[in-house]
Amino acid sequence: MKIAVAGAGIIGACTAWAAAKQGHSVTLFEQDTAMAHTSRSSSKLLHGGLRYLETGQFALVKKALHARRFWLKHAPDLCRPLELLFPIYARRGRPKWQVGIGTRLYDFLAAGSGFPYSAWLGKAETLARCPTLLSDGLKGAFSFYDAQMDDYALGQRVVEQCRRLGVSVAEHHKIESFGQLAEFERIANAAGPWAMALRSLQGGTPAYAIDWVRGSHIFIDRFQPQALMLPVPQEKRIFFVLPYQGKTLIGTTEVRQSHPDAQRPSETETAYLLAAYNAYHSEKLTANDISGSFSGVRPLIKSAADPSNATREWAFERVGNVLHIYGGKWTTAQLQGEAALQELLK
User: Fold this and answer.
1) What is the radius of gyration, based on Cα positions, of the chain?
2) Of the candidates 119, 130, 156, 105, which has an alpha carbon nearest to the alpha carbon of residue 223?
């Protein structure tokens, strides 16, 4: 079957990959270059999403926890298991019992994935691993495992696999009308943040709405000895402090915006991330310590007033021979691509 996939982010690339593996003739269209936008602007984690357990997304978390293994197997040079610590403070943030239940449930859902189980570390060991963490009120930390990736390189690896299987990758080729794709029997709209623009070409009311949520990160030019997951003070949100390619990566924000295009992190966002980091560390950071920054727009299915609570699941809508793909997350992109192909071929 002759298939067109619009959008060469990780979801579109995985959809094209799935189709090519089944022997279909596939063209992957991209308005810019492959992996140029959201897919290269993640937190660099392949993770189940410990915080998604609080919103009851158990099925998604289980899928994602097992999906980590696929990427580690297929690209061990671009991914690695990563131990994270979730510090617990007295009278601050989530209580020890709550996080403990979460990490045990994470272990249960990850059973058979090959990752180590979570563990409790006392105060002394936590500080030995993270010497700059504030010690006042610190009880210890829960250790748990996810994985880290080079998102851009891993995405390019998928595109490379597509090419090896005969997929034609047409970059700098924007789809203005589905009439441009009249020669194709099936079309997948995997345009991510721009999926609604393509959906509008067919008219009618879309089955889903998209929340454009900007996630910003900052780099600090110093080595980070231990990956951390921390609650944002006075909020339910969490943020990460991660070692990444010899630097410290801090993120992310979640800012709803009215358009799909990414923009530079705002001063408000960088100040927010610095304040969150400084609330837990004795060595304070200032704007002068920031060596780089980036942001990406996540196309989440609109499902909650607070984007932090929005589902990270995916959904499909079929209109004629076009399959519109909404939502999803990096970790489960391969599974989503396979599922999209099944829907496309119906």
Assistant:
1) 21
2) 130
Residue the block writes with tokens 């079929």: 318
Cis peptide before 15 (omega within 30 of 0): no
Identify whether the C-beta of residue 19 lies closer than 8 Å to the C-beta of residue 42.
no
Backbone φ/ψ region at 114: left (φ over 0), alpha (ψ -120 to 50), beta: left
CA torsion angle 269 270 275 281 (round to 10): 140
Listed in order, strand segments (DSSP E) in the chain are 2-6, 25-29, 45-46, 79-89, 119-122, 138-149, 168-170, 186-189, 210-220, 227-231, 238-244, 247-251, 255-257, 290-301, 314-319, 322-327
Nearest to 55 by CA among 275, 289, 311: 311
Domains and CATH numbers, the chain: 1-44+150-209+303-346 (3.50.50.60), 210-301 (3.30.9.10)
Bridging pattern class, strands 119-122 and 138-149: antiparallel
Q: For residues 27 and 25, what is the distance between their CA atoms, to the nearest angstrom?
A: 7
Whether 193 contacts 10, CB under 8 Å: no
Q: Would you say 208 and 24 are in contact if contact means Cβ atoms under 8 Å apart?
A: no
Tell me which residue has tokens 């304070």.
284
Using pLDDT thresholds of 50, 70 and 90, give the confidence band for residue 232.
Answer: very high
Q: Per-residue pLDDT tens for 274-322?
A: 999 999 999 999 999 999 999 999 999 998 777 777 788 999 999 999 9
